[in-house]
Amino acid sequence: MAGKHAILVLEYVDEPKDSRDKILKEAHFIEKKLLAKQDTTAKVFETQHAFGDWMSSDDSKGLTKIHIVSHGNWEEVGRYNGAGLADYIRAHIRGKRDLRSITIHSCFSGAKHPKKDEILVQQFASRLLTHLKSDFSQYIVVRGYDGASFTDTEGRNWSLKEGVTIPDYRTREREEVFTQSSTKPRLMARPKFAISNTPGYRGVDAV
Q1: What digits encode the pLDDT tens for the residues 112-141?
Q2: Residue 100 belongs to domain spanning
Q3: Across-strand partners of 3?
């Protein structure tokens, strides 16, 4: 997707260094992939403070997509549940009329909760819709992952099959073999929900 991308890395209290390093590495893999595309800019924000400062500056004008990168599960991303994350993001996207897409790169963010009939990314989309007014984009697609989220060294995002452990591969060739055999079909494994506040319609739809 060409355009201007912001990559937000969520931190949480007492996060181990190796866990933090893994998430930062994945965020920079995504950045590298995006910067290789024509007419595309991308920037990683390793703290929410840095993200907030940039979003309130003129540099963020024309923002088209936000990537949220963090550890998580069916119930939370970083330290937010779906509604809480929407409230946080809403505070920073006022006036961003070009924003068309938000992807939550977090394990199980697009999977149905095993004990509840809930999907975190759908909750995020529903809550974000309540904030959309005339000074926000009127149409945004949000995406999550139906399984454990994995970003390879080329910046491509995958959802792992159940029970898969990421090996300590040393070459790109071995990584490719792993992704081909151990990940779910990309279109099915990355569910999307569209939220629209266009005249005559207001709602959340799976797409």
Answers
A1: 999 888 999 999 999 998 887 777 788 899
A2: 3-206
A3: 40
